[in-house]
Design a protein that fits this description.
The protein is mainly α and 303 residues long. 56% of the residues lie in helices and 6% in strands. It is built from ten helices and two strands, in the order ααββαααααααα. It has a two-stranded antiparallel sheet with strand order 1-2. The longest helix has 31 residues, at 47-77. It starts with 37 loop residues before the first helix and ends in a 9-residue tail after the last helix.
Length: 303
Amino acid sequence: MDRPDFVGHQKFSLDDCSLGEFPPISNFIVEPKWPADAWIKETSSRIGDWRATFRSTYFRWALAINGLKVASEHYHSRMHEPTEFTIASLRSHGVERIAMWDFKTAAKNHRDTLPMLAAWGVADLYSTLEEFVFDFYKAFLNHYPDSLINGHEFQHLRKLRRDAAQGAEHQEAWKTAWDERLDKWQKKRIYDGLNKVFLSYMEVAGLKTPSIHKLATVETWADTIKGIGALRNCFAHGMVIVTKELSDFSQKPHSMLFNFVEGEPLKIELKHLQSVECFLDQLLTAINLSLIERAGYALPTRP
């Protein structure tokens, strides 16, 4: 699916500019101290792009929700006019009008469509989160593939890797085989649960809770990912009643604005979509800080 960038970013060196000339900085690209940490620079270089992706994904749903609100208000203001609102679709004989509403009905139906967009927005953001977690995990594995090519069944991959290190003529074969291995690994790991995949990535990459964080931890990040996944699953599976899992998460300190109660009707609102976007923005910042400390730098202290 296309993902337009409604944000955009500028990259510049802290050594070449005055910070006073720029808006607040939200992403830091980390220069590693050691060659073995080249993956840190590559990963931190993706923070800005993913922040733009998360925000742009949210923006699209916000725009659609705003459009429905404006349309509802527009038709409500014209509810006494005799003109009809029509919807057309294709039929075997051509285009046919399949709905004809007065403006009062059109206003109500636009308004009643809003919850569906918030729900689809949550699902879309979760899918983007899934892409993000695997993108970062694979960025690390590209530098350290050993864990995925151990064992007799991957003997051929180890040989291709050794050959690739000897000359450029073998690198394409290794890359093709490695990409295939990564793809199969991802398809299998997704069944473990995205929260567990995230925890696994943080562990193998040696990323920890930033030292300046006093409340949120790697574990609460993972649990929040699980909670968002529980909401997405309820929607994706057509649940109309809040499940115990979603209700239990809503009672936790890090539940964002989730206020779901077991047994009650499942109503996904704009505030839930907004809270998911907020978490994703905070998660990127936290991982960025974790990468800085993983590279051996101290975080700046606030005055």
